[in-house]
């Protein structure tokens, strides 16, 4: 397992290099240049030209790319022209918010999805199954941003159950009050993200339970007099969880990427909101780093899924 995982990590190196080249070229193709965010009415053309020459803007592309990679390895991600602070410090301020929100969303998502998938699969074609199918259809069909806007309108503005923006109340200084305030601000976006992201898990689990229920080993166990609840718990449910476990790694990276919409709508100061602010402000340094980071997280998510699947099912090998 360790040897195979290390081999996969080594294989990720050329993938990350190709990804970094694509990100670098996309940044070069964007309108303007990295100094667009620094330009003010007081900035002279001579000053802009000096900044371009100092940063090697007129060097060949491979020289610029090499300098960019060297700076990345030294932890120098550049300066955010919009926020006027190093990108490293900016990410450190935002990344914990997104990680906590994604973790809470993933926990809630599986807490919602597993019982729904089990009920839908075990009681196929009953009223309970049809009701869950209708729920899955609605959450799959409705655009995420409309779902979030409805949620914030009903539970935030009308019922006033949850805060509608920010990550913590301004009148909280620290201690337990600070902790509960952060949880309170995360709950509504996490619940809404979890509700709308359960569809895939519910449908996968339902299909697996239905398929496994028709296997010969299940029929044999029932014919031998093994109680149906025992057969379901020890054979059907356990085997049906294999694809769900493999789905876990992709879920983590999917939630991190999906946080762009929910953080923007809720004004939640995480990486998703930072990404949108960087695009609107043409903050090239932040955009390139975030795109590269999301790409690397996707590769790690794929590796995590393979590792988890091989752990829960030793018959599966990572090649």
State the end-to-end CA separation: 11 Å
Could you tell me the strand content as a percent range? Answer: under 5%
- The structural class is mainly alpha
- Overall number of strands: 2
Order of helices and strands: HHHEEHHHHHHHHH
What general outline do the C-alpha atoms trace?
Answer: globular
How helical, in percent, are the residues?
over 70%
Gist of the model:
75% of the residues lie in helices and 1% in strands. The chain is mostly helical.
Task: Name a few traits of the molecule.
2 strands; 319 residues; 12 helices; mainly alpha
Please explain how this structure is put together.
With 319 residues, the protein is mostly helical. The chain contains 12 helices and 2 strands, in the order αααββααααααααα. The protein has a two-stranded antiparallel ribbon. A hairpin with a 4-residue loop joins strand 1 and strand 2 (85-86). The longest helix has 39 residues, at 228-266. The protein is globular and about 85 Å long.
What's the topology here?
Elements: H1 2-29, H2 45-54, H3 61-73, E1 79-80, E2 85-86, H4 87-122, H5 127-141, H6 144-158, H7 175-196, H8 199-213, H9 216-223, H10 228-266, H11 271-280, H12 284-312
């Amino acid at each position: 397992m360790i040897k195979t995982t290390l081999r996969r990590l080594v294989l990720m190196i050329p993938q990350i290099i190709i990804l970094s080249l694509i990100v670098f070229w996309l940044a070069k193709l964007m309108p303007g240049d990295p100094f667009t965010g620094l330009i003010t009415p007081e900035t002279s053309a001579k000053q802009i030209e000096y900044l371009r020459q100092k940063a090697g803007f007129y060097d060949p592309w491979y020289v610029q790319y090499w300098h960019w990679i060297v700076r990345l390895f030294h932890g120098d991600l550049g300066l955010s022209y919009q926020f006027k602070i190093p990108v490293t410090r900016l990410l450190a301020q935002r990344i914990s918010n997104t990680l906590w929100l994604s973790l809470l969303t993933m926990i809630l998502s599986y807490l919602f999805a597993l019982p729904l998938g089990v009920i839908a699969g075990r009681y196929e074609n009953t009223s309970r199954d049809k009701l869950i199918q209708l729920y899955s259809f609605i959450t799959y069909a409705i655009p995420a941003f409309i779902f979030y806007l409805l949620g914030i309108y009903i539970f935030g503005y009308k019922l006033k159950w949850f805060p509608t923006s920010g990550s913590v109340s301004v009148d909280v200084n620290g201690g337990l009050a600070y902790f509960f305030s952060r949880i309170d601000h995360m709950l509504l976006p996490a619940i809404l993200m979890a509700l709308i992201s359960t569809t895939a898990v519910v449908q996968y689990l339902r299909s697996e339970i239905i398929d496994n229920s028709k296997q010969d080993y299940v029929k044999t166990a029932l014919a031998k007099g093994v109680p149906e609840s025992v057969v379901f718990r020890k054979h059907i449910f356990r085997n049906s969880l294999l694809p769900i476990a493999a789905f876990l790694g992709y879920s983590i990276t999917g939630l991190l990427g999906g946080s762009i919409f929910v953080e923007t709508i809720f004004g939640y100061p995480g990486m998703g909101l930072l990404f949108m602010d960087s695009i609107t402000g043409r903050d090239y340094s932040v955009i390139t780093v975030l795109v590269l980071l999301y790409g690397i997280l996707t590769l790690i998510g794929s590796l995590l899924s393979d590792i988890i699947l091989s752990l829960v099912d030793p018959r599966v090998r990572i090649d």
